[in-house]
Design brief:
The complex is a heterodimer of chains A (about 160) and B (about 200). Chain A has about 160 residues and is mostly helical. Helix content of chain A is about 85%, strand content about 0%. The longest helix of chain A has about 35 residues. The chains are: A mainly alpha (about 160), B alpha+beta (about 200). Chains A and B meet through helix 4 and helix 5 of A and helix 5, strand 5 and helix 6 of B.
Chain lengths: ~160, ~200
């Protein structure tokens, strides 16, 4: 934890959007894998539901943070929309996937349906990492990075 | 009746441009013809029937020839080596038709000698490493490049299951295919068909 303004400056100068967000992607990937393992190993439905709820809540939190913090910040600093309209649509589809899975939750999670969401997330992450992160890096703004660090420390923890 | 070889050669030489002209006239007229929506509407039942009647080996050859034309440069440059020994299934879900592709795995041969093949001769369909599943219409939009694979995937018209990395690599490869490499009539049919599908969507 940085305890001086200088520490914070040192950290933010080394940070990039990719590192900041990849950590959260990895955390969600791990939670996805936990649900999948529970399905593969036929863990009790209660346990599957709980893991799914944890995964869903982490994913929604990530999407919400991107929608409310990251995207507006990019538009503010770049003055452009870039790939954000496409990312909005992808987030909507992810939420639709989650709703459909949740509707079927009482009958038990279906592995193949859950895996389709996993594929979608993997492709979405790749799209985001290819389109949005380099666009952020290209802005090369210290002010933006500082704001991001602050927002991430508030948003992801 | 047998014609002298000289006459046959001359007739064939004259027939090709004449057929090309006729073909172009037909396609130019179809672009504005009221027949096109009807033909597109009938395309799926017609293809279903053809799928039942035409021998599988011939169907596979037709698909494979088109695929090889699109993939030729990538095969030669070794950019499809990631497919070696892997099986990709293309599944037209509303017709329940599948094609299984692989790259012949000859580990000691240079990339140029690797061959894209359809696993058609096997009695049991192989277990695919990755499956691309979509409706016929979505595949037509994809093949005509009227809609890119990312858009189809992200609006859930195209589903990819199985090996994520392999799926990503194939999806990115499809995006780079040059549709101009297809036989002209095939390209024209795809163009006309996809144009009509898009018009139907916006109607």
């Amino acid at each position: 934890m940085p305890n001086t303004a200088r520490d914070l400056r040192d950290i933010t100068s080394e940070l990039n959007v990719e590192n900041l967000l990849e950590d959260d992607h990895q955390r969600i990937d791990q939670m996805y894998q936990d649900v999948l393992d529970a399905l593969i190993n036929q863990k009790p439905p209660m346990s599957q539901h709980l893991l799914f709820k944890l995964f869903k809540s982490a994913l929604l939190r990530h999407l919400h943070w991107e929608e409310k913090v990251l995207f507006p910040m990019y538009i503010e600093f770049s003055g452009k929309q870039g790939s954000i309209p496409q990312l909005h649509l992808q987030h909507k589809e992810i939420m639709d996937y989650l709703t459909e899975l949740e509707e079927d939750l009482s009958k038990g999670l279906e592995k193949s349906a859950f895996e389709l969401l996993g594929q979608y997330l993997a492709h979405h992450n790749e799209f985001e990492e290819k389109s949005l992160y380099p666009a952020f890096e290209a802005l090369d703004s210290k002010e933006l990075k500082d704001k991001l660090v602050l927002a991430i420390s508030r948003g992801f923890k | 009746m047998l014609l002298p070889k000289r006459v046959t050669t001359m007739l064939v030489a004259k027939a090709k441009p004449a057929l090309n002209r006729a073909h172009n006239v037909v396609f130019e007229n179809l672009k504005t013809s009221s027949l096109t929506p009807m033909l597109v509407a009938k395309a799926k039942p017609a293809l279903s029937l053809a799928h039942k009647l035409v021998p599988t080996a011939l169907q596979n050859q037709l698909v494979l020839q088109g695929m090889k034309r699109l993939a030729k440069e990538f095969l030669e440059n070794g950019e499809m080596d990631f497919m070696a020994g892997k099986v990709a299934r293309l599944h037209i879900k509303d017709m329940d038709i599948s094609f299984f592709f692989t790259l012949q795995d000859e580990s000691n041969s240079p990339s140029q000698d690797k061959k894209l093949i359809i696993l058609a001769s096997l009695p049991q369909p192989p277990e695919p490493n990755v499956t691309f599943s979509a409706t016929l219409e979505a595949f037509v939009l994809l093949a005509s490049q009227k809609v890119d694979p990312d858009t189809l995937f992200f609006n859930r018209s195209l589903q990819i299951s199985g090996d994520t990395e392999l799926g990503l690599e194939i999806k990115n490869l499809i995006d780079q295919f040059d549709i101009q490499l297809l036989h002209k009539p095939v390209g024209q049919v795809l163009n006309l068909w996809s144009q009509q599908l898009l018009e139907n969507q916006h109607a």
